[in-house]
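Tip: read the tokens left to right.
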């Protein structure tokens, strides 16, 4: 597929459509939060934007991960992307470490970014609170994420709610670069879905569903069998009382209602009305069946894709090539603006 990009000598790529960029870390399984809070939303946007969907393996090494696991998870994530409805014929699916420009732009942006701003990031503070020593990669993580976004001059960045603060930093750095040098970057807009933007752990609805949670019984993976999905949902923590309603003092039931709403496309009031007077058992069974039915076709497609790894590698190759072209253009423009002497050819 062509990058659909016009270029001129003096300016970086001018896309004919608005640009969307977003990414997932290949740091383990692909879970229901990633699917409902992120990829489902991207699928709906891919017809309207020039899309870049990244697999950010460089972000994944900010936490310890076995090399073999990282390599396998990278390919698996591409398969989950496609199985979830992202279409390589419409979008550029790429692997971050294959593209020259992400770390180069991150260096330039990092030189504009006060350390204090990075130290105030919630995800950094949480990790510092949990670990004895934290690598510089974790501190610089949001700068690399800003580079991911600005390298493609993205207008739209659809993410779950947990990424909002990182997006703010990307916006700040775009504005700071534009002020310091000259207008260069769009200030990217976050797109956070109304339903599914914050799927919580089934074991502890005060925490977001996550692959790094110690208690994995609260995380629903798309790779889980139907039996495991049903078991995790039937054991989900519920709240005192028996009412099935979305309310601040009922975080467990509220989370399950949001999952049911995202899987069925039905609004919360209609679900609350349906389950009025019914017990938690009936309610959880309905959630389990909705999740199993939603994921069935995605899981089937995933299995087919994983049976043909060469095809997945071809998808990445094609995505990388188009992505690299755009990345080079932006990087050349940035290097010129900051005053780096042009390399002789
Ligand atoms: P990551 O890999 O943790 O998650 C990928 C996407 O899934 C969303 N998400 C959730 N949504 C709802 N409920 C949840 N429990 C849940 N957990 C995760 C995330 O919000 C995200 O949209 N830093 C990013 C990856 C990244 C990125 C980027 C994203 C790197 N560069 C550039 C956008 C643009 C991350 O760790 O996402």
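Filled-in amino acids:
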């Amino acid at each position: 597929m062509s990058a659909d990009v016009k270029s001129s000598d003096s300016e970086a790529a001018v896309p004919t459509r608005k640009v969307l960029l977003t990414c997932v870390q290949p740091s383990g399984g692909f879970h229901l939060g990633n699917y409902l809070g992120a990829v489902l939303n991207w699928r709906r946007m891919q017809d309207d934007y020039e899309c870049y969907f990244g697999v950010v393996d460089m972000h994944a090494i900010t936490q310890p991960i076995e090399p073999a696991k990282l390599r396998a998870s990278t390919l698996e994530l591409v398969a989950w992307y496609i199985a979830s409805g992202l279409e390589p014929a419409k979008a550029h699916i790429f692997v971050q470490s294959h593209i020259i420009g992400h770390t180069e732009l991150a260096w330039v942006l990092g030189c504009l970014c006060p350390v204090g701003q990075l130290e105030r990031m919630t995800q950094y503070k949480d990790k510092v609170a949990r670990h004895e020593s934290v690598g510089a990669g974790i501190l610089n993580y949001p700068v690399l994420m800003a580079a991911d976004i600005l390298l493609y001059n993205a207008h739209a960045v659809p993410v779950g709610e947990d990424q909002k603060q990182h997006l703010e930093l990307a916006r700040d750095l775009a504005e700071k670069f534009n002020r310091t040098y000259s207008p260069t970057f769009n200030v990217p807009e976050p797109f956070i879905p109304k339903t599914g933007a914050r799927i919580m752990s089934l074991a502890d609805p005060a925490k977001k569903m996550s692959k790094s949670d110690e208690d994995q019984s609260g995380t629903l993976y798309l790779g889980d069998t139907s039996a495991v999905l049903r078991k995790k949902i039937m054991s989900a923590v519920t709240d005192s009382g028996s009412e099935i309603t979305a309310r601040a003092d009922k975080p467990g039931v509220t989370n399950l209602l949001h999952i049911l709403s995202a899987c069925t496309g039905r609004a919360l009031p209609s679900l609350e009305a349906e389950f009025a007077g019914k017990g938690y058992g009936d309610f959880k069974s309905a959630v389990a069946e909705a999740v199993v039915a939603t994921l069935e076709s995605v899981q089937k497609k995933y299995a087919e894709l994983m049976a043909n790894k060469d095809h997945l590698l071809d998808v990445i190759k094609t995505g990388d090539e188009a992505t690299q072209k755009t990345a080079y253009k932006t990087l050349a423009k940035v290097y010129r603006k900051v005053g780096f002497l042009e390399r002789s050819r």
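The longest helix spans residues 309-338. The radius of gyration is 21 Å.
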